[in-house]
Amino acid sequence: MKRRTFLKRLIAGAAMLGTAALLYGVTPLLAPRRATAKRNYLRPPGALADDAAFTAACIGCGLCGEVCPPRCIKFHTRDGSATVNTPYIDAAEKACILCDKCMEVCPTNALTVMPRGDINMGLAEIDQTACYPWVDRGICGACVSICPLGKKAIGYKMWNQYRPEVRAGCVGCGLCVEVCPHPSVPIWVVSRPNDIKV
Amino acid sequence: MAAPTINEGAAVHHKPFFLWRHLNKLRWLTLIIVFAMLVLLPFLHIYQTYTAAHAYDLLSPGEKQLYDVMESIAAPFVSDPAEDLDAVKGNTWSGSFWGFKISDPLAALGQVAASLSLYWPFLLTALVPVLATIIFGRFFCGWICPATFIYELNSNFASWLRWAGIRVGNRRFDKRIKYGVLALGLILSAVSGSVLAGVVYPPAIIGREIYYTIAQGGLGAGTIFFLGTLLFDILVARRGFCRYLCPGGALYALLGRYRLVRIRRIAETCNDCAKCNVVCEFDLDPLRDGFGQECNNCTACIAICPTDALTFTIRPSDYPEQGPGHLGQLYRKQQATEDTDAAS
After folding, report:
1. Which of chain A's residues have a Cβ under 8 Å away from the Cβ of B53?
2. B45 touches chain A (CB under 8 A)
């Protein structure tokens, strides 16, 4: 009799947990989806380099997003299994301005305060077969003008040409991606190769 | 003839402080303030971003309206909104007050489980809640939790339904289930390497879902889960999630097991009316001195007691059962039989 009640309770508990898990599982199906183009999501500045460690350290409190002045930090609200509620930046939509507020407010070690030069969100990369100056379709220089880090991060290849080139000082904030006027955005942020140090 | 003299003596010695029975109103006020702040802060953040961008002329009419309302709210308190409004940020899961960070103990424990390492600057942010819980018990559940605000309104809604003749669930389970949920949540956090305990924890869900809805342009997955718990409370068990399933409530109950400030019953003025047992959201037994670690000091029983027979006491354990209340029928019968026994 006791074993039976125990089993009953066990099954009831499992059913309740299963229902809860199911509710979470069906949500992405109910949620409206944006165009699922392959996006290059960045972590906020100061994030732990290892993304698994970042996911483990982040408690999903949303504080980084709540202090972000350009509101560029967004959250995996419905998508992502283990990364649910963790922050990301979609640079093509809105880029980071490197103001340090999110690093200062983060209660955990997911984002830690570090000097601007040590930030490693990635490294910008330019498609030289599409960028206007590189294919001789006029002068532009929007990415070079907007860069908050100046010459050490991005500059012109030659002084009389407006062909941009990314340098080792780039921290991957993505402002160049946001500002690029080309419809196909031939500049994006990739994860930093190990051989390029700041 | 003996009973009235006992009552007079009791009235002199055991009258609770008159404000205790009004604490329940204060509790509702704090719940409302916490919830209102959770709604207000995302709007204030949006207003901050507008001021930081000096973009008033570029805003749409709706955004201008938001700007104006938020400016009228914030203007008395801050001179430079873009910077000064950073003073208060966050939610009950983790918040920042003038640079002082406070986190939920479950957040700290969940992060330790997920990352399998101790990061002291973060763990120390949970120190104040832990100390307060050791003193006041599970008070977070009754006094601060933004989900409690909705769950109690939901309880009231269920009692209206019952009044209207619709059957609502009133099943009872084992309250220890929630400790299993806590353990399971921590184990799953460790296995998945993600703070999953916070994904099934209503106050954390409420905090971030309000923020997502207002500032991130849409509800997250947690809303569906939360609506599920509301349905569970109506259809299966009153306040069922908090009583039987909440992992954070389990952690707070464990921390507050030997709390110093607790409610006790004054047997001398109790008349066994059992209103305290009916009003108790956590299905406790104040009538028979059964508070235990589950009590969240919400003071609903103190507020409803018609004879002022419940008060606060400072001791690390509950009073042992004091028997029937001295103003009740049962006690008088007992006294009468004892008197006749003594006489014969």
Report:
1. 69-70
2. yes
What residues 214-233 of chain B have any CB closer than 8 A to a CB of chain A?
A: 215-216, 218-221, 224-225, 228, 232
Q: Which of B103, B200, B216 shows the shortest C-beta gap to A74?
A: B216
Which residue from A minimizes the CA distance to B122?
Answer: A108
Last residue of a domain, one of B259, B285, B319: B259
* List of chain B residues with pLDDT < 50: 1-11
Residues A86-110 have a mean pLDDT of 93
Spatial distance between the Cα atoms of B7 and B15, rounded to a whole number of angstroms: 11
Query: Closest Cα to residue A90, out of A37, A45, A35, A39?
Result: A39
Report the percentage of chain A scoring pLDDT > 70: 88
Which residue, of B259, B282, B297, is where some domain finishes?
A: B259
B63-98 residues labelled b (16+ CB within 10 A) or e (exposed):
eeebbeebeeebeeebeebbeebbeebbbbbbbbee
- A40 has pLDDT over 80: no
Which pLDDT score, from 0 to 100, does residue B10 have? 46
Closest residue of A to B236, CA-based? A16
The CA angle B14-B137-B291, to the nearest 5 degrees, is: 55
Tell whether B86 lies on the interface with A, counting CB pairs under 8 A.
yes
**Could you say which of B42, B45, B208 has the minimum Cβ distance to residue A60?**
B208
The pLDDT of residue B221 is: 83
Beta bridge partners, B100, equal B97
Quickly state the pLDDT bin for A175 (edges 50, 70, 90): very high
B32 interfaces chain A, CB cutoff of 8 Å: no
CA distance B47 to B139: 33
**Residue A29 scores a pLDDT above 70:** no
Task: Answer yes or no: do B240 and B305 share one domain.
Answer: no
Tokens in use for B242? 């908090």
Cβ-defined contact of A60 to B204 (cutoff 8 Å)? yes
Q: Are B273 and B161 contained in the same domain? A: no
Radius of gyration of chain B, Cα coordinates, nearest whole angstrom = 24
Residue A196: the pLDDT is 67
Q: Distance (Å) from the C-alpha of residue B194 to the closest C-alpha of chain A?
A: 5
Q: Are residues B268 and B248 in the same domain?
A: no
Q: What range defines the domain where residue B325 resides?
A: 2-22+262-343
Shared domain for B206 and B245, answered yes or no, is: yes
Is B106 in the same domain as B169?
yes
Contact map slice: B 53-82 vs A, CB within 8 A: 53, 82
Instruction: Note whether B98 and B209 are same-domain residues.
Output: yes
The answer to whether residue B255 is domain-embedded is yes
Mean pLDDT of chain B: 91
Average pLDDT, chain A: 86
With CA atoms as reference, the chain A residue closest to B38 would be A66
Number of domains in chain B: 2
B271 and B241 within one domain: no
Question: In chain B, which residue's Cα lies nearest the Cα of A63?
Answer: B90
Both structure tokens of A148: 């908050």
